[in-house]
Amino acid sequence: MSQSTLAETPDISRASDGAKQSTYAPPGSFDPRVYQILTLASLLFYGVWKLDFEIALPQIVISLASALTTQALCARFWRLPSFDPKSALISGLSLCLLLRTNSLWLAAAGAAVAIGGKFVLRWHGKHLFNPTNFGIVALMLVTDSKVWVSPGQWGNVAFFGFLMACLGGLVVTRAARTDITLTWLAVYLGLVFGRSLWLGEPLTIPLHRLQSGSLLLFAFFMISDPKTTPDSRWGRILFAALVAYGAWWVQFRIFRTNGPLWSLALCSFMTPLIDKLLPGPRYSWRSPLPPEGKRQTISPHSSNTLSPLLAAS
User: Are 281 and 22 within 8 A, CB to CB?
Assistant: First the structure.
């Protein structure tokens, strides 16, 4: 996509067939990304302070700085009217929570790849991959085990898991993506428990497998990304079910770790097709205010709603 194309993106998105596509945002003018930033920052602080996360302060600083710098450079290169750090902060904090490496260079590269990917890998004005997912999977593919995701780093602290679920539930509700999170959890948990019942395993085994902080982060903060998931509700439900089955297949059929991450990356290629078969309004982070300054609620089914969303947000 050229610089001028991104800079001159109109308020109304274009569907794959060239028709105008409406956008919608959750009620209210408060950007839900602020909730995500506060939640992820709190989780990171608690993890470093209480759970002895295997991440040093230099890696945290490098990851966040690389994400913000890449966002600023891309915004300038694609001539966006302003620098918005919120999405970059979300990706940087997520990488701090999930990505582990002994190399500060790789930590910086992961953040740069995550942010740069959403500007480069696009389809009809919509980036294909969740930035955090893309950054982690890309590094795992090319670095030969020099980066990894450690699901056991969170421990089995029931209170912390409950706290993550509650805060994550708040985030996805604000972002209007509760449907995809609940569908993914229902299908994936059903497959995991179903396999254990079929094999005659005690229920403590699947319960232990599911006591993972990274699994909750994936469900509530990664697959629920409203900018990379299908636009319609039925499309999101289908997408969540496909990702859940793919995660289960990777985890329990070919016995590779990080099944949800691999599955989401592969299934993201199907989002354009799902959007074409099951079209819906494109998501916007915030509702625009009318000229009089009064707040308004934008219906997700409205055909004439406008969004100030830029293509690279």
Answer: yes
Treating both helix axes as pointing N-terminal to C-terminal, what angle do 86-98 and 131-142 enclose, rounded to 10 degrees?
Answer: 40
State the sign of the Cα–Cα–Cα–Cα dihedral 13, 16, 18, 20: negative
Domain that holds residue 262: 26-283
Bridge partners of 230, per DSSP, are none
Residue 253's CB is within 10 A of a number of other CB atoms, namely 10
Query: Is 142 inside any structural domain?
Result: yes
**CA–CA separation, 118 and 223 (whole Å):** 15
Return the bridge partners of 23, or none.
282
Total number of domains in the chain: 1
Residue 245 lies in a domain: yes
| Residue 16 predicted with pLDDT over 50 | no
Residue 177 lies in a domain: yes
Please check whether residue 108 lies inside any domain of the structure.
Answer: yes
Q: Where are the beta strands (DSSP E) in 134-275?
A: 147-149
Q: Cα angle vertex 103, ends 99, 105, to 5°? A: 95
**Tens digit of pLDDT for each residue in 257-274?**
899 999 999 999 999 999
Please determine, for residue 279, whether its predicted confidence score (pLDDT) is greater than 70: yes
The span from the CA of 127 to the CA of 113, in Å, is 13
Tokens found for residue 256? 């590779």
